[in-house]
Design brief:
Elements: E1 3-6, H1 11-21, E2 29-33, E3 49-53, H2 59-66, E4 71-74, H3 81-86, H4 88-108, E5 113-119, H5 142-161, E6 165-170, E7 173-174, H6 187-197, E8 201-204, E9 210-211, E10 214-215, H7 216-229, E11 237-239, E12 245-246, H8 247-258, E13 264-267, H9 282-287, H10 296-309
Parallel strand pairs: 1-2, 1-4, 2-3, 4-5, 5-6, 6-11, 7-10, 8-13
Antiparallel strand pairs: 9-12
Helix pairs in contact: 1-7, 2-4, 4-5, 6-8, 6-10, 8-10
């Protein structure tokens, strides 16, 4: 089985490529990435992964990458709610138009099985918890709207062209390879890097906002299982396990792993951020009954160990 991972040099993509290479029934693995947010060194030490540098907006590059593929995992995106507020058109082009380009390349190039990555941000202003996939989406940022388009196009292609597709909604994925050295860094790498530098952790708001943090190893395991079994669904599927952790509770976990307290600095809440997020996991477990999520503490330990392995990873954001 040959697999293409768009965004394969990114944080989740790099972890997935490692999982794919450890799987005996996976042959060729292609990481397709324009390296705008991904990094070639995320694939260092992973034998047998071919990196193709190209954009999901380039049909010819996609056609070349997808040739002979049995499955495509579409992770390429321009992430971050704050980034999308500053650059909404770029967010739409990369995430919505890019997904259509990927689906078209798959449709016209052998029709491989396709998994796409949507986001819990599509739930937006809907206050109900946990987030059940049948809830009406209420995106409150351009990023969220672009990810809603991602999943909608994938499912529409599945219905319209009899393609095998699966759309996951990711919830606050974290773990090794997630960089902290840019202005749009996710909260866990930003917190860990600041703590290791001895600087205060910047908390937007009171810290009571909650998230369903999901370790990247658990996400990669589900994606690998989906590809191997060609799991499909006519509706989106949450990829998270129903945890609900506040930012202050997260800070306490980081302090426990580091063995010392850390200073905090509170700022105003960020526009576009939702207050609470928690996945309903019933649909996920119905499709993947054997999945076993990594506990938060173990995931934080692995993340801290990754940062400590190379002190440059905790350098200040630019």
């Amino acid at each position: 089985m040959d697999v293409v991972v768009t965004g394969g040099a990114g944080f989740i993509g790099g972890n997935l490529c490692r999982a794919l290479r450890r799987c005996a029934d996976v042959g060729r693995v292609v990481a397709f990435d324009d390296l705008s947010t991904g990094r070639a060194d995320n694939l260092e030490g992973v034998d047998g992964v071919e990196l193709i540098v190209g954009s999901v907006l380039d049909p010819d590059a996609l056609g070349t990458a997808f040739e002979g593929a049995d499955a495509v995992v579409h992770l390429a995106a321009l992430p971050s709610v704050p980034r999308s507020l500053e650059h909404p058109l770029a967010s739409h082009e990369a995430n919505a138009t890019g997904t259509v380009r990927v689906l078209e390349a798959a449709r016209t190039g052998g029709r491989p099985y396709v998994v796409v990555a949507s986001s819990s941000s599509v739930y937006g202003a809907n206050p109900a918890l946990p987030k059940v996939e049948d809830m009406a989406p209420r995106p409150v940022s351009p990023y969220a709207a672009s990810k809603l388009a991602t999943e909608a196009y994938a499912l529409a292609y599945g219905e319209s062209f009899a393609m095998e597709v699966l759309a996951f909604r990711f919830f606050n994925v974290f773990g090794p390879l997630q960089a902290a050295d840019h202005a749009y860094a996710a909260v866990i790498p930003a917190f860990v890097a600041a703590a290791l530098r001895g600087e205060p952790l910047t908390i937007h708001g009171d810290g009571g906002q909650t998230r369903d943090f999901t370790y990247v190893g658990s996400v990669a395991a589900v994606l690998l299982d989906a590809v191997r079994r060609r799991v499909t669904s006519a509706v989106p599927v949450n990829l998270a396990f129903g945890s609900r952790v506040s930012l202050l509770e997260l800070v306490a976990e980081i302090e426990a792993v580091l063995g010392h307290g850390v200073a905090r600095r509170h700022t105003e809440p960020r526009p576009g951020d939702v207050r609470d997020s928690q996945a309903d996991q019933r649909r996920l477990l119905g499709l993947f009954p054997d999945v076993a999520p990594e506990p938060l503490r173990a995931g934080v330990e692995a993340t801290v160990a990754w940062f400590r392995a190379d002190p440059a990873r905790a350098r200040a954001m630019v």
